[in-house]
């Protein structure tokens, strides 16, 4: 078992399984059973730009699945593939929650905006954002189909992607921060932001 798992903890069990690839983005447009018409419910898609750490990717998928995100879309380039480490970090969510990919993120966001979707990005350091309004996540109001873009661990949302966003959401810190500890782990930040947004659905009874 140690050899099969390449030294990683296995808890006495090992399963050989086929790899899970990213699904093609056109498939994401097709409604699934139980989805209903898009106009009858609040849709929420999570877009992951250049997430490279498999533990972060797994944690992001786990939070997205738990909180009710409808689709997850990842960039094809400079992103972590769907590995066994991702699956374990997702606590199995990766096995039941399809992940889609795109090789043209800006084009995808522009097209969804033209369809009437609201596109918002996330900012760990609001002072680094230029030309796009930055608001606290608690001030954001969810009133149309929504795409939330999460950026890479080191760089955040890229400038080109920021320009496709109507607003950038930030999590206000609870104290004056030391210069070396000025941001949250990407999966923790995403969980806070998604909960702040999804709690509006529960309050409104949708």
Explain how this protein is built.
With 206 residues, the chain is of the alpha/beta class. It has a single domain (41-173, 183-199), classed as Alpha/beta knot (3-Layer(aba) Sandwich). The protein has seven helices and eight strands, in the order βαβαβααβαβββαβα. Strands 1-4-3-2-7-5-8-6 form an eight-stranded parallel sheet, with helices on both faces. Helix 2 links the parallel strand 2 and strand 3 (71-75). It starts with 22 loop residues before the first strand and ends with a helix. Residues 45-195 form the tRNA/rRNA methyltransferase SpoU type domain. InterPro entries: Alpha/beta_knot_MTases (IPR029028), MRM1 (IPR047182), MRM1_MeTrfase_dom (IPR047261), SpoU_MeTrfase (IPR001537), tRNA_m1G_MTases_N (IPR029026). One of its GO terms (cellular component) is mitochondrion.
**Global morphology:** globular
CATH architecture: 3-Layer(aba) Sandwich
The number of strands is: 8
CATH homologous group name: SPOUT methyltransferase, trefoil knot domain
Number of helices: 7
If you average the pLDDT, what whole number results? 88
How many discrete structural domains?
A: 1
- Helical percentage: 25-40%
CATH class: Alpha Beta
């Amino acid at each position: 078992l140690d050899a099969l798992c390449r030294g990683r903890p296995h808890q006495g069990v090992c399963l050989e399984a086929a790899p899970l690839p990213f699904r093609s983005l056109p498939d994401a447009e097709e409604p699934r059973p139980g989805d209903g018409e898009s106009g009858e419910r609040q849709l929420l898609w999570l877009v992951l730009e250049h997430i490279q750490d498999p533990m972060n990717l797994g944690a992001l998928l786990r939070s997205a699945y738990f909180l009710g995100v409808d689709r997850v879309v990842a960039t094809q380039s400079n992103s972590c593939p769907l590995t066994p480490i991702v699956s374990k970090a997702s606590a199995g969510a990766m096995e039941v929650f399809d992940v889609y990919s795109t090789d043209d993120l800006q084009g995808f966001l522009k097209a969804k905006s033209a369809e009437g979707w609201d596109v918002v990005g996330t900012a760990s350091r609001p002072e680094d954002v230029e030309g796009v309004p930055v608001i606290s996540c608690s001030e954001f109001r969810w009133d149309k189909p929504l795409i939330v873009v999460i950026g890479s661990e080191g760089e955040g949302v890229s400038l080109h992607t920021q320009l496709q966003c109507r607003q950038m959401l930030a999590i206000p810190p609870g104290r004056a921060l030391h210069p070396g500890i000025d941001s949250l782990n990407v999966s923790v930040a995403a969980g806070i932001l998604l909960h702040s947004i999804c709690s509006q659905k529960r309050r409104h009874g949708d």
